[in-house]
Amino acid sequence: VQQKPDEIRVQIPSGKEAIVLELLLQVASREMYGLELVRQSDNRLKRGTIYVTLDRMETKGLVESRLEHEKTNEQSLPRRLYRVTGFGQKAYETWQLVRQASLLQIAGAEGRA
Amino acid sequence: MTKKKKKKKKKNKEAHAINLYIDDQLKMSEKVAVIAHHEAGHYAYELWGISEQRKLLVHGNGSSPKRISKPPGFLLRSLADTLFSSNTMKGVIEPSIADMQHEYFEALNSNQKFKAFCVRCRGYVSILMTLGVYRIVKLLWDVWQNTLAK
User: Fold this and answer.
1) For chain A, which residues score pLDDT lower than 70?
2) Which of B130, B131, B134 to mutate to test binding with chain A, by most A CBs within 10 Å of its CB?
């Protein structure tokens, strides 16, 4: 029996994940916290879902996070800053290519019709 | 009751109130500082040795006793800590509470108390939504992973 070669699964980010990656890649420092992402997204991201999305993206390896410099005397918890990983950047580029291809396909189908 | 006795009773009542409020909310050094100040006859209305953020949480004005409230999300965090795993706490709940607290303190810093109140309400709603969404997404994710494994 011929063995199947190991499949290389390419993770294409979902729409929300792509927005997060796009925003993170736009900023110069490439580090943002959850609420900042919501503010920058022009209502494309919601407060109620952003942290779940970021957590899932971190599990997938698309982003990595670190705690903001912790001040011991402060009352509030330190914020978590997120940034894109190399894999995340590649996944975003793949997502863009897939999107362009699907748009071309749609345009072609409309042209034929 | 003479005027002097009334005054003394009022003083004792205030001192009791101060001690009650500072009982478990201040660190030992702060507590000592506050009591020392009280003994000097100033009734601890000047709180020093506490962070700027903590000063924003001090309530009461004039001659009324001061009350130091906990930052928003304190109770929710301790409640969530008993219900969710440490990974969920670290990845989902704590970042959302931290962002809410920073926004809340920003509003208090600019003396916008109504905005701070709105931030607090909105923060609680979004955290509760986050927890609901998290449960649903995790369930779907687990189902998806199990399907792929088969």
Assistant:
1) 1-11, 28, 70-75, 113
2) B130
Reported ipTM exceeds the 0.85 cut: no
Q: How far apart are the first and last CA of chain A?
A: 45
pLDDT digits (tens, 9 = 90+) for B60-94: 555 554 555 677 888 888 888 888 888 888 888 88
Asked whether A21 and A13 are in contact (CB, 8 A), the reply is yes
Structure tokens at A88: 């995340």
CA distance B54 to B56: 5
CB atoms within 10 A of CB A74: 16
Position of tokens 């600019």? B110
Is B61 in a helix, a strand, or coil? coil
**Residues of chain A with C-beta less than 8 angstroms from the C-beta of B97:** 77
